Amino acid sequence: MVLSSHQQGQGASSTSSPLNRPQQQRGHIVDLTDEERRRRLEEQMRCNKFHRFVGGNLILKQGILDKKKGLWSRRRMFLLTEGPHLYYVDPDNMVLKGEIPWNETIRPEIRDFKIFFVHTPGRVYYLIDPGALLFCSLLFFSTSACFKKKTCVVSAGKAKIWCNAIMEMRKYYYGDSPSAEKMSLSATNAAL
Fold it and tell me: Using H for helix, E for strand and C for coil, what is the string for the chain?
């Protein structure tokens, strides 16, 4: 679930906190007013069972993904938080399994509607949305001549949503990196 930013601007602020940026610079998933951030953090502490794994940071996006390494994949709850941090937790045993390291070169890449990669300097994380499905069926129509029509309905996978959220966080905390942005866009366009 992506928590969209609330657009109640409080004008320009003299503080340097990223959460107090002027209204015209808002638009990232992390751009929240101090009040909105406080309210969401209180709600998260009360209602989200994964709050204990994020070190007091506000969870901006979370979801179940399969993390593939070698021949095996493991189902994990991924937690994208302020900081930025991308934690992954074993949802069955409720154990923090790790964190994808962040720096200015982190780069998500979409392979298709359900598979995406997160490139970091030391490793490439291979992630799969287990909820994305592809339904194909053959429809038979009878007219004067019989014919088949193949239709495919794609259940919208979350790969693109996750990649966009990771890119927004990278841009927010590290600014625009033209080389990483160009590589990511070319890989994204090639996949779609």
Answer: CECCCCCCCCCCCCCCCHHHCCHHHCCCCCCCCHHHHHHHHHHHHHHCCCHHHCCCCCEEEEEEEEEEECCEEEEEEEEEECCCEEEEEECCCCEEEEEECCCCCCEEEECCCCEEEEECCCCEEEEECCCCCEEEEEEEEECCCEEEEEEEEECCCCHHHHHHHHHHHHHHHHCCCHHHHHHHHHHHHHHC
